[in-house]
Write a structure and sequence with these properties.
Blueprint: E1 2-3, E2 10-16, H1 20-31, E3 40-44, E4 54-59, E5 69-73, E6 75-79, E7 84-88, E8 93-98, H2 99-110, E9 116-120, E10 123-127, E11 135-138, E12 142-150, E13 163-175, E14 186-189, E15 198-207, E16 210-219, H3 225-238, E17 245-258, E18 265-267, E19 270-272, H4 288-305, H5 316-331, H6 336-346, H7 349-356, H8 362-371, H9 374-385
Parallel strand pairs: 1-9, 2-3, 2-12, 3-9, 6-14, 12-19
Antiparallel strand pairs: 4-8, 5-8, 6-7, 10-11, 11-12, 13-16, 13-17, 14-15, 15-16, 18-19
Helix pairs in contact: 1-2, 1-4, 5-9
Bound molecules: flavin-adenine dinucleotide (FAD).
Flavin-adenine dinucleotide binds near residues 22, 44 and 55.
Amino acid sequence: MKISQEQNKHYDYIFAGGGCAALSLAWYMNKAGLLKDKTALIIDREVKNSNNRTWAFWTKEAIAFDEIVFKKWKQIDFVDSQKRKNISLDPYSYQLIRGIDFYEFVLADLSKNSNIHFTQTEIKTIEEKKAAKPIVHVAHESFSTDWVFDSRFNKTEVSSALYLKQHFKGWIIETANPVFNPELPVLFDFNTPQKNLMRFIYILPFSPTRALVEYTLFSENLLSENEYDAAIKEYIDKVLKLEKYEILETEMGEIPMTNHKFSVQSSDRVLNIGTKGGRSKASTGYTFLRIQKQALAICKSIEIFGHPKPQTQNNSKYHLFDSMMLQVLKDRGDLGEAVFSRLFFKNPIDRLFRFLDEESSLADDLRIMSSVPSLPFIKAFFKLKF
Ligand SMILES: Cc1cc2nc3c(=O)[nH]c(=O)nc-3n(C[C@H](O)[C@H](O)[C@H](O)COP(=O)(O)OP(=O)(O)OC[C@H]3O[C@@H](n4cnc5c(N)ncnc54)[C@H](O)[C@@H]3O)c2cc1C
C-alpha cells in the first residue's frame, strides 16, 4: 500500500471517502482486473482500523464476502406487544459482517496492488469545470482524475419533505448465565414503550451468553445518549430479566430514511456511491447489499462501455411505496408496531423480502398492500400526491 505524498498527481480513479461503498467498489474493480493498468487513490479522513459498525442483511445467494461472514441465522423471531412469531427464513439467511473484518479483508487485498494508493486527509472540495477533468482538493494538495466516486454523505444536501432517521444504540453484553439462543435473532421486539414513535429492540445473539441488544427508532429526531441507554437497560431488566451482565462494546449510529431522489451522477465525471448514491433503502435503512449491487453494476459498465456510469433502473414504484411508509411513520409513529406486525404476520417471508429487495411482482405488491392498515396508507398516498 503506498501513501500518496506527491503534489498534484493524476489518478484514473479517485474514491472520495473510503468506507463501505468505496472499499467494496475498489475491491470488485481490483478483482475484475480493472485496476491492473489504472491508478486509484482512496481518500478518507479516518483510518479504518476499528469495528465501527456491523452490517447485517438477508440473502439467499452467496456473496463476495462469504468468507468473512461472522454469523448466519436461518430463523428470526418477530415480537409485538401481543405475541411472538418464529419465522423460518429458508431459502434466505440473515447474516452479519463485522466492520473490522470487512476493512481488514478488503484492505489486505487492495494493498497487494501498487496502483492503489491511500491517503488519510479531509477532502475540502471536488471541482469540476466543463470539459476538464475533476480536481479533488484536500488540505495542502490537489489531485486530478478521470473519475471520482464520492461517498461523503452530508445530510444537509438532502432537501426533501420526508426525512426520518433510523437511529440506534446497541450494547454487546456478556451474561453470567446462558440466556440467549444463538440460533435465533430477534429482528423486532416492540416490548419497549412506544411513546407515539416507532421504537423497537433488535437482538443479535452470538452465543448463549453474548448478544447485541440494540434500541432503534424510526423518527425525525435523535435522542440524547442517556435515553438510548435507559431504554436498553429497562428492556434488559424488565423483559430479559437479567441481573448480571457486562457491557463489552457499544454501537451507535443513524441511517437516513428519506424519499429524496438521490442522483448517482453528481456531474459528468463525479458519481455518487453508497448512502450518498441513494443506497440506503428508505423504508428499512438496509444498505450493505444494495452497495454491493451498485458496485457490481459500475464494474460491469466499465467492462462493457468503458465508463463507470451504470444504467439506472426505473424504481418509481418502490419510491412511492417507501414514501408512503415514511409518511405513515412520520404522521403516525404510534402505528409503526401495527404496520410492521402485519407485514411480518400476514406475509410469507420470501414475499416480504422480494418486496423489500425491490424484486416483487404485481401480485406480491397487492398482497403486501392489503396486509397493512389501509386508511393511513391511503391518506399518505393522497398527501404525497396532492
Ligand atoms: C452504526 C451503523 C450500523 C449500520 N448497520 C447496518 C446494517 O446492519 N445493515 C445495513 O445494510 N446497513 C447498515 N448501516 C448503513 C450502511 O450500510 C453504512 O452506513 C455503510 O457504511 C454506508 O457505506 P458508505 O460508504 O455510503 O458510507 P461510510 O461507510 O460511512 O463511508 C463514507 C466515508 O467517507 C468518509 N468521509 C466523509 N466525509 C469526508 C471528507 N470530507 N473527507 C474525507 N473523508 C470523508 C468517512 O470517514 C467514511 O469513511 C449501518 C450504519 C451505521 C452508521
